[in-house]
Amino acid sequence: MAKAKLCDKCTGLCCRYFALPIETPETREDYDDIRWYLCHRGISVFVEDGDWYINIKNKCKYLSENDYRCRIYADRPRICRQYKTSDCDRVDGGYNFEHHFTSDKQLSEYAEKQFGNPRRQKGLKQKRKRKTK
Prior knowledge:
The chain is of the alpha+beta class. The chain has one domain (3-132). The chain is 37% helix and 17% strand. The chain has helices spanning 3-8, 28-38, 78-82, 104-115, 118-132; strands at 17-22, 43-48, 51-57, 99-101. Strand 2 (43-48) and strand 3 (51-57) form a beta hairpin. Helix 2 runs antiparallel to helix 4. The longest helix is centred in the C-terminal third of the chain and has 15 residues, at 118-132. The chain is elongated, with a radius of gyration of 21 Å.
C-alpha cells in the first residue's frame, strides 16, 4: 500500500500502545512477576524472536481524535520519527508472535507446562513422605 493511501486511512493504531522489552523469565518467580503485569487492564505480554515484551495500551496524548494525526508532528519524539510505514499495524501480515499472553491465567497455564503444577507437586511430595514412614 502506498504511503499516502496508508496514511489517509490511518487511525493512529501505533499511537495507542507501546511495547517495552522485559527480562526473559527463567524461574517460577519470574513468571509470577509477569503474571502480576497481566493482572492489570490494557496489558499483554508477547514473545517475538525469543525476546519478551510487555505491551501497554495507552494512547498518546498528542494523537488527535478528529483526524488521527499527530498534533506535534514537526517536533515528535525520535521513536516516532524512526517508525516506518512498512512497520504500520495496517500493513497485511500480522504479527509473528511465538506467544501472546493477554491474561494472567494464560501465563499461569504456560508456566505450569514449563515447571509443572506447584500444588500437584506439593501433594506428590506429601504422599511420598507418608509412604516412607
